[in-house]
Design goal:
By secondary structure, the protein is α+β, with helices and mostly antiparallel strands. 46% of the residues lie in helices and 10% in strands.
């Protein structure tokens, strides 16, 4: 999208920088200019000047300066295009786009209108929840018990959702308005027998919960998190994905914490709403939290719009370590030489709230200062389970650390780490660099991003052209394959398991009841179906997958994506669970029938005694193969998107080359490892 320069100049000329800045900073007239406390650094005496004649702001303390658009970018964390649209909307201007068709422009305008309408609905609900809190002694007592003051509750807009099924009907006279369901406030349920006839179709999503509004960087309410007052499950309930809310991109408390990032010098990432509220109460207003999901690259990128230093704070138990490992994957691509990324591990019995209340703010601040740097945590994660006193252990660590190191941007930090890794594995840095350049990465289920980009078996090789596909051109194709039975695939693909008649075999020839076609369907299972079955059968495989694959699966459309998102939340909250426990947790969820149907196939027969390890290994290989197909489709889509952005996005050619390079690396690795290509 290209915005004409003439429009940008007109917008800057029409916008009043004093009015724009004044919405966020208290300004006082001082001669020809206005003065206030700088929002970009902590200060007690105003040194932040805004000039109405020059339409410019400047801080004499930290040097921050710019126009109205620049202020929205720097203070609001917006991108340039988003800032232009936001500022234009404030003055009733329509942003012209040179390379956008009228139909696309109309769709974009409609989408912006829908988003504005949804945030209006959510804001109205938030006002109602805050009014209900004043008349809810149980909720007030709970907040007081957690040490939350009235001032902090007002700052974060905390409210209360009453226990009734349709409390919002008193707030929205048209309770059947589709916007209530689209915003995630109301659930539409047509199941019979669960509700009265009057309530059978619609009821409030949040009932008898303390409500935490989730705001975007502009301060607009885009969703809610609700916390039960007792011990019922789920303890926390988030708004679903909507046109204005995505858990993988939003951070709770970001709007409230932006100024504190600059005052404290860093962002503190925690795991829960109450951590953020309690930390703000106890002197750490720079805290934010992920919304019931693992920390993603989108989260990290958003944080680095506001600060150059991030500290991830996790509990010291196994779940905290798993969450930290996810955060490491998300942070590595942004670990530049000028940024600081650290990992703080509290004692296993504490979260930030309980630790500060028991040991005090100073002790917590010392913990923050002594947090583990990203470089050290990356090394610790890579060497876990590796005996560095043996050649095998050092080789294993070399394999573990390679995708982590490769994910880092080039710079002094990355090169120093190469030397440190080389010393640990008893190689010199040039030899290690040469080794990684000349050999493929290890292929194992759930490896890092570089290990997951394996070629789709339905892509025909270009043998004989002297290019990347000239791999043993005289070798006949492998014989132990048959066409795969995946849905919507038009070409035969490599199939690691065989389907036979009654009494047949699967899992590499080991005896077990055959997998039957899914009942009630005329088509074979899709790739997401197979991934669901394998991951519900062995949840530990989900824990082993890379962050990239987690995002890919959770972003799948429909019930598959919702189910994988739920599975990820279960892992973070309860750890690895067997299918029997997962089945109970699925009761009443919209994707329960999908899981039950797929798992009825997986439970066709027991694994013979003594063959469990082989069964699991073959299942892991099958999962890796299915994910390879899916990841390759994603890479192709990303390539096409990059190509479509040529001429519009200056970074598109670089993005395309990076994706293309990943696929070429994949093909090289497959040729070297002898993986099947059909």
């Amino acid at each position: 999208m290209t915005i004409p320069a003439s429009f940008i100049q007109e917008l800057i000329a029409r916008a009043d920088v004093v009015e724009v800045v004044g919405r966020y900073v208290q300004l006082k007239k001082a001669g020809a200019n206005f003065m206030g406390l700088c929002p970009f650094h902590g200060e007690k005496s105003p040194s932040f000047s805004v000039s109405p004649t020059k339409q410019f702001y400047h801080c004499f303390g930290c040097g921050a300066h710019g126009n109205a658009i620049g202020f929205l970018i720097e203070h609001g964390g917006m991108g340039f295009v988003e800032a232009v649209h936001d500022l234009a909307g404030q003055y009733g201007l329509q942003v012209p786009e040179d390379d956008v068709s009228p139909a696309e422009r109309a769709r974009a305008a409609s989408q912006r209108q829908k988003q504005a309408t949804l945030t209006d609905v959510l804001e109205k609900a938030g006002d109602a929840y805050r009014k209900h809190l004043r008349q809810a002694p149980g909720a007030i007592e709970y907040l007081k018990g957690r040490g939350v003051s009235g001032e902090i509750a007002r700052q974060f807009g905390i409210g209360y959702a009453p226990a009734g099924w349709r409390a919002l009907a008193s707030v929205f006279p048209d309770y059947d308005d589709p916007l209530l369901a689209e915003s995630g406030l109301v659930i539409v349920n047509n199941e019979e027998g669960k509700l009265s006839e009057e309530e059978a179709k619609r009821y409030d999503r949040f009932r008898d919960r303390v409500m935490f509004p989730i705001r975007n960087v502009k301060g607009e309410c885009i969703g809610f998190g609700g916390r039960v007052l007792g011990d019922e499950k789920p303890k926390y309930l988030n708004s679903p994905e909507t046109p204005v809310f995505s858990k993988g991109r939003e951070l709770y408390g970001l709007y409230e914490a932006r100024a504190a990032f600059r005052d404290k010098g860093y962002a503190l990432v925690t795991e829960g709403y109450m951590d953020v509220v309690a930390l703000a109460q106890l002197g750490f207003p720079n805290a934010v939290a992920t919304l019931g999901t693992a920390c993603t690259t989108d989260h990290v990128q958003k944080l680095f719009r506001f600060t150059e230093s991030v500290v991830f704070s996790f509990d010291g138990d196994a779940a905290g370590r798993r969450a930290a490992r996810k955060a490491l994957d998300g942070a590595l691509p942004y670990a530049t030489d000028v940024r600081s990324i650290k990992f703080l591990f509290l004692p296993a019995e504490h979260d930030p709230d309980s630790f500060i209340r028991e040991h005090g703010a100073e002790a917590f601040a010392r913990f923050v200062n002594e947090a583990t740097p990203l470089s050290r945590f990356m090394i610790e994660a890579a060497r876990e389970g590796c005996d560095l006193t043996t050649a095998e252990g050092r080789a294993h660590m070399t394999s573990n650390v390679r995708p982590l190191w490769s994910a880092m941007p080039d710079g002094a930090l990355k090169r120093q780490l190469l030397s440190e890794i080389a010393t640990l594995v008893q190689l010199d840095a040039p030899a290690l660099s040469e080794l990684w350049a000349s050999t493929p990465g290890p292929r194992k289920a759930g490896g890092g991003p570089a290990q997951q980009q394996q070629r789709r078996h339905d892509e025909p090789p270009n043998y004989g052209d002297g290019g990347a596909d000239d791999y043993y051109p005289d070798m006949p194709p492998p014989q132990d394959y048959e066409p795969a039975r995946y849905e919507n695939d038009s070409k035969p693909k490599f199939q690691q398991r065989k389907f036979t008649g009654k009494g047949g075999k699967r899992w590499g020839g080991k005896f077990e009841e055959p997998i039957e076609p899914l009942r009630g369907r005329g088509t074979p299972p899709s790739r997401p179906d197979v991934a669901v079955r394998l991951l519900l059968s062995n949840m530990a495989q989900w824990e082993a997958l890379s962050h990239e694959l987690h995002v890919m699966l959770c972003d799948l459309p429909g019930q598959h994506g919702a189910l994988f998102t739920w599975l990820d939340s279960q892992l973070h909250e309860h750890g690895v669970q067997p299918w029997a426990a997962l089945r109970e947790g699925l009761r009443g969820l919209e994707f329960e029938p999908l899981a039950e149907r797929l798992m009825s196939v997986a439970e066709a027969g027991p694994v013979p005694e003594g063959e469990e390890a082989q069964h699991l290994a073959d299942a892991a290989r099958e999962l890796a193969s299915v994910l390879d197909f899916m990841l390759e489709e994603l890479l192709k889509k990303q390539e096409n998107e990059a190509i479509a952005a040529f001429g519009k996005d200056p970074d598109a050619p670089n993005r395309f080359r990076a994706i293309q390079a990943r696929r070429l690396e994949l093909r090289t690795r497959l040729r070297s490892s002898g993986s099947e290509i059909a």
